[in-house]
Structures are given as structure tokens and as C-alpha cells.
Amino acid sequence: MLPELPPGLFAIAHRAGNEPARIAEAAAAGARVIEADLWLHRGRLEVRHTKTAGPLPLLWDRWELRPGWGPRLQLAHLLEAAPADLLLHLDLKGWNDRLGPAVRRAMRELAPGRPYLVSAQRWSLLEPFHEEPAAIVVHSIGSARRFERIARHLAGRRTAAVAIHRELLTAERAERLHALADALLTWPVNDPALLPGLERLGVRGVITDALEVVRAVATPGRGGENPAAMRGETHPRSTP
Asked: What is the maximum alpha-carbon separation in the chain?
């Protein structure tokens, strides 16, 4: 049986999987999908958004600097902390071409049969997952240039989902993406007031840092309001 996205509109708790304490918090708010960032570092699948600083034992992200010499969360720890009924969204980071195969192999060994989303803005990292039965592949689009490339990259194949930065999302682009993918996701969505407009564009998944948005999406009755679902514009998942 192929994995499926939650029905109707759903929230993805952005970076909640990077810290075990935030997993329970997001789940309690009603999140059905938990996002985590994965890096391959010295043979380990590390769960973090911060980057390494070359040979220095430091982790950094924009204006944030953290010591890098303590224990680091790894994919195995995330799988232990996240209840099986939560759908994990694994966002692949960096330029290491071994990351995709390593994640696919680890998921098969550590959580055989457990469905998950896997995304990346560097689409070559997603290649190992196109034939993976447990994976829902999400092509991420963070720039206008990538948006213009997505149709050519897919080369006539339909993909399970695409995620586009909200500032890039227009009605015209939404229509073009619906022709390529079964589901449209967008980020960042940190204000509940944005939800009606996104639903009108046929957005299925909102990626958010705000528990307020998670709660709003989880409110009974909201999940069935997605216009694409109401019109019956759903497509069976196809394998590229």
C-alpha cells in the first residue's frame, strides 16, 4: 500500500523534529506531520538545521551560534521520539550526494514500512526515493528560477507533491503546479489569517513554525474545506 498524505488541509510543524521536546508539543496542538532537517556528517545522519563550521567545533545558522562538541540528535533518536502515527517530513540538507541513499537505507533498517515525506531544494538528493514505496517525494521550490525549472526536471512525470515558498505562490503558479503534482505545499505560513487564501489556491499542506496555525488547521471542519478536494481534483500517486 502506497503512503498517503493526510486528507484535506494539514499542517506540517516546521523543525519540530529537530528537538524531541517540540515533537510532543506540536502533536498536542494537532500537527499530523513533523518536519526535521537531515545532514550527513562524518557518516552520521544528524537532525539539525544549523550548519557545521568546517574543522571548528561550532554549529551556526544566520545569527545563531552553538557549541558543536556535545551530543547531536540523530535520525535513530528522532524515530524513537516520534510516535508512529505522526508522519515524518525529512528535509535533506547540504551537498553530500551520499545523503539520499543513506537516509533511504536507514529508514528501511530502522523503521521498515513506516511512511514518510522526503524533500529537498537540491532535487538530485531525491533521486533514491522515486522507487521507494514508503516515501512521498516533495520537490521544494525556493526561488523563481527553480519554479521555471520544475516542469523540465519532471519531464512529463507526475510527482507526489511540490512545496513552494509562499512569497512565490500566485494563482498562475499554483495552477501550473497542480498540473505537475498531486499535492501543493507552501511555507512559511505563520498567521492563521493566511489559511483561507491558501485554501482557495488549492494548497494541501502548510509548513509552519506557529502552533497557532497548527491549532487553526486542526480545528474540526477545516480539513474538508480544501477547494481542490471539494472539486474532486485529486490524483492517485504515481511513481516517476
From this structure: 54
What mean pLDDT is predicted for residues 162-191? 98
Residue 65 lies in a domain: yes
- CATH value at residue 165: 3.20.20.190
2/4 Cα distance (integer angstroms): 6
Are 115 and 122 in contact by the 8 Å Cβ rule? The answer is no
Cell, residue 138 = 516533495
DSSP 3-state of 57? strand
Bond before 188 cis per omega within 30 degrees: yes
- 237 lies in a domain? no
C-alpha dihedral (53, 105, 30, 168), degrees to nearest 10: 60
Distance CA 102, CA 108 (A): 10
**φ/ψ of residue 101, rounded to 5:** -60, -35
What secondary structure letter does DSSP report for 74? B
- Residue 71: per-residue pLDDT: 62
- In the structure, what pLDDT confidence band is assigned to residue 94 with cuts at 50, 70 and 90? confident
Question: What is the tens place of the pLDDT at every residue in 63-80?
Answer: 454 444 346 689 999 999
- Given the C-alpha cell 515525506, which residue does it identify? 117
Answer whether residue 57 is part of any domain: yes
CA-to-CA distance for 58 and 46, rounded, in angstroms?
14
Could you tell me which of 179, 182, 173, 184 has the C-alpha nearest to residue 143? 173
Domain for residue 4, yes or no?
no
What's the pTM value of the predicted model, to 2 decimals?
0.83
Contact between 79 and 51 (Cβ < 8 Å): no
